[in-house]
Amino acid sequence: MICTISKMFDFDAAHWLPHVPEGHKCGRMHGHTYRVELILSGEVDPARGWFVDYADIADAWAAVDGILDHRCLNHVEGLENPTTENLAPWILRQLAQSLPHLCRVKVYESATTWCEVTRTEALRP
Question: How do residues 19-36 score in pLDDT, each as one tens digit?
């Protein structure tokens, strides 16, 4: 049986968007409490009853959290223009090797705004 699971994580970070029009509020330094949803899909091992341990997902996320949490995202290599549209695939690329079943990443900038990217899109050259 194939199933899909997800695990969510939060981190706090500051950023500004360098390519917005002059005077746009997002051109100023500001912060968000981001929520990241990691979505994995795979074949359930009948003996174990799962295909990935949630603890393994948390362990993989810890390395990325150490790069992002309480940082200025503009100073993170590859996130010089840290829109959610750039952040979501960046996160997926960081986790692709350690979480081979990771198929989608959803990044919430607020309770009402988010960006979702699939593995195929994020790993495209």
Answer: 999 999 999 999 999 999
- CA gap 101, 39 in Å, rounded: 8
Q: Are 13 and 73 in contact (CB under 8 A)?
A: yes
Torsion angle of the four alpha carbons 49, 38, 10, 111, in this order, in degrees rounded to the nearest 10? -120
Q: Is the pTM of this model over 0.85?
A: yes
Mark whether 85 is an active-site residue. Answer: no
Residue 75 among the catalytic residues: no
All domains of the chain in start order, with CATH: 2-122 (3.30.479.10)
The two tokens of residue 9 are 């994580």
Q: Is 109 a catalytic residue?
A: yes
